[in-house]
Amino acid sequence: MQRVQLNAKASGFARRGQPWFYRDDFAAGEQAPARLVRVVDENERDLGLGITSTGKLALRLCGPWAEGEVPDRETFFGNRLQAAFARRAMRLGPHDGTRLVHAESDWLPGLVLDRYGPVLVLQATSAFVEQSLDAIVPFAADALKATTVIARNDVGARKHEGLAEEVRLLHGNRVEQVTIVEHGVRHTVRPFVGHKTGFYLDQRPARALVQQLAHGRTVLDLFCYQGGFSLAALVGGAVSSVAVDQSQEALDLAAAGARDNGVQGLLPVHGNAFDFVRDARGRGESYELIVLDPPAFAKSRRELPGAERGYRDLNRQALRLLAPGGQLLTCTCSHHMTLPRFEEVVRQATAGLPFRVVLEQRLGAGDDHPVLLSHPESEYLKALLLRRVD
């Protein structure tokens, strides 16, 4: 039987829910190639299944398994995928966009799987998952009646497992774009070339909130990408939404989205968001609702000091653009930027402003992106709703 034994210290962490281990955590033996193994503690007690690798991250736990032996790939992935799909059963409508598998949170480390109606998009960041696509793809396609399955493996994390970055069609017909409907808003998804797996599914709760808050208000959408927040605001009755992004292609998609949803008031601005907020203050502009959703500023711990400066500056400038009583929804998707640290940076941004700022609500990703409390990396998205009080 394929087996890995952890030392006493690592075994304690495993029993407390830690999912990742390194070669130094092993009790004995050589580091195993990519495979599914039974994991035991220093006293031979069972710790469930794990996925091994020859990379720096030598073992990722993938949950308990009732049988004594190590299951074959088809049995293992069929069991785990079926359970993950069942947990999202209420989000499997024909036009839904849903995260079906959220890696460690679904006991499938190294695998992300998103669904956009009939199109499935996956990312594999472990060698074992990559080697098991012949077991994963047929099961998922059949269970969900998918017409298309795409690998969006153009992510840097793959290099840690010696995997090439690539995008390829795995099953069915090539689909350049598909439309999903979220809270009555139509969004175009480009699974081969769009950000992440084609769309920011994790911001569904925040878009719903913006849609509720936007009625009769002027909106500023910074780092808008293809205008997801702007479309939600305009469908929710916003007077206008200024959408700022450095990509003209993204702004063109936002304009097309406004036409598709039959709304007016989208005001695209091609430019740098940092420059825009500074110039807008000089012009005396103000907005009643601002969305600040920048890309990850800290992709490693050593980038945190610079990231904090960027978040602090942006939030301070955005707060200065709020009309009296206005609200700012500010976000970070850097998992290294913890929620307490992010709140502290935002608090620093409010220092010395000629008005008070209150925190009204904390948000994160949707329930299809479950947070594993013992794995902080699964809680990468944080959002704060602030209000200017005069």
Kindly summarize this structure in a few lines.
By secondary structure, the protein is α/β, with parallel strands linked by helices. It is built from ten helices and 19 strands.
Notable characteristics:
390 residues, alpha/beta, Archaeosine Trna-guanine Transglycosylase, Chain: A, domain 4, Transcription Regulator spoIIAA, Rossmann fold, 3 domains, 5-stranded mixed beta sheet
Order of helices and strands: EHEEEEHEEEHHEEEEHEHEHEHEHEHEE
Shape: globular
In CATH, the homologous superfamily of the largest domain goes by the name: Vaccinia Virus protein VP39
Distance between the termini: 68 Å
Provide the gyration radius in Å: 23 Å
CATH architecture term of the largest domain: 3-Layer(aba) Sandwich
What portion of residues belong to β-strands? 25-35%
Outline the fold blueprint.
Elements: E1 3-5, H1 8-15, E2 20-22, E3 36-40, E4 46-52, E5 57-61, H2 73-87, E6 97-102, E7 111-116, E8 119-124, H3 127-131, H4 133-144, E9 148-153, E10 166-172, E11 178-182, E12 185-189, H5 204-213, E13 218-222, H6 228-235, E14 240-245, H7 248-261, E15 266-270, H8 273-282, E16 287-292, H9 304-320, E17 322-332, H10 339-349, E18 356-363, E19 382-389
Parallel strand pairs: 1-3, 8-9, 13-14, 13-16, 14-15, 16-17
Antiparallel strand pairs: 2-5, 3-4, 4-5, 6-7, 7-8, 9-10, 11-12, 17-19, 18-19
Helix pairs in contact: 2-4, 5-6, 6-7, 8-9, 9-10
